[in-house]
Amino acid sequence: MSVKKITAILFAEEIEPCLKFWTERMGFEKTVDVPEGDKLGFAMLQKGGVELMYQSYASAEKDVSSVSRDVRKGPSFLYVEVENLDAIIGALKGIDVVMPVRTTFYGSKEIGIKDPAGHVIIFAQLGAA
Fold first, then answer.
1. Looking at CB atoms within 10 Å, which of 6, 51, 84, 129 has the fewest?
2. In the chain, helix, strand, coil percent, each to 5?
3. What pTM value is reported for the model?
4. What pLDDT score does 129 carry?
């Protein structure tokens, strides 16, 4: 068996602030969106070979009601390896930092933030220490 790709699906009350974070600050492109009333129910973002999906709680309730209560338990945690952490730090001005810049025992320079939905994202540059 071969695994071709793993994509995170993050759940949120509202998707729009999350899209703004990833497109305006991180340079991602919205590749798919699915309206749900006057809001978005689902969106897919991509940058290079990296893909990320967001789905609203309301959409999850309709789509996968058997686990819809579970999606509200979050937050999720993402570990994102980047080429240039200083460029990321510059793009994070005004964002809630939950883990200040640190150097790990395994030689990674990292910073942790919360996205607009409350998910924790750790950006890391390996070998930058």
1. 6
2. 25, 45, 35
3. 0.90
4. 60
